[in-house]
Amino acid sequence: MLEAHHKQRRIRNSLSREEIRDVSLLILKEEGLDGLSMRKIANRLGCSVASPYSYYESQIDLVQDLIRTGEDELLSMLKKASADVKTGSAFDQLAAIARAYFHFASNNRELHKVMFVTDYGGVHRKAFPQLPKSYRFFLETVRIGFDSGEIPYPKNEYPAIARLMWSWMYGVIVLDMTGMLRKRKGAGNPIEEGISYFQKLLSKKPT
């Protein structure tokens, strides 16, 4: 009788944080945060359940690393989108940022939920002790529009307008993720609609 051949389990020091992170992101994409566990990660990597704990103190520690990874990717996308704008217009840069943010969220739905939805307790504050770098980059772009006069509003209104624009971007993404974003007959792309309205509203001098 032939003996059954069992797949050899990987030893702990054959793993890397990058492998664990990549598998975790895949599980997160397929099953959401509720489906993520150290046991599932270990099964996919062919190692013991204890092995990932050599790289992460806890699952919360791992999730915080996923949030930071997502934030780095999002920031990179926003910076590239802004840099690709050749007009020098702050409005055009903000429009490019909005499109890039929507693209990131559409392609990373579960990761975006973990990054920006507040259902997961204090995980966000520990991952982001300060404002997320993506939001700070967006704020800086809005400030450039104020400083250049392209957004002809008093500078003390800059924080409120920045919050309004970011809230709109986030709101459109949430509507899309929950299936509530339905294109009306004859309506255009909701992102492009919003960009157009903001440009019309903010390019007019306040009375």
UniProtKB/TrEMBL annotation:
<keyword id="KW-0238">DNA-binding</keyword>
<dbReference type="InterPro" id="IPR001647">
    <property type="entry name" value="HTH_TetR"/>
</dbReference>
<feature type="DNA-binding region" description="H-T-H motif">
    <location>
        <begin position="37"/>
        <end position="56"/>
    </location>
</feature>
<dbReference type="InterPro" id="IPR025996">
    <property type="entry name" value="MT1864/Rv1816-like_C"/>
</dbReference>
<dbReference type="InterPro" id="IPR036271">
    <property type="entry name" value="Tet_transcr_reg_TetR-rel_C_sf"/>
</dbReference>
<dbReference type="InterPro" id="IPR050624">
    <property type="entry name" value="HTH-type_Tx_Regulator"/>
</dbReference>
<dbReference type="Pfam" id="PF13305">
    <property type="entry name" value="TetR_C_33"/>
</dbReference>
<keyword id="KW-0805">Transcription regulation</keyword>
<protein>
    <submittedName>
        <fullName>AcrR family transcriptional regulator</fullName>
    </submittedName>
</protein>
<keyword id="KW-0804">Transcription</keyword>
<dbReference type="InterPro" id="IPR009057">
    <property type="entry name" value="Homeodomain-like_sf"/>
</dbReference>
<feature type="domain" description="HTH tetR-type">
    <location>
        <begin position="14"/>
        <end position="74"/>
    </location>
</feature>
<dbReference type="GO" id="GO:0003677">
    <property type="term" value="F:DNA binding"/>
</dbReference>
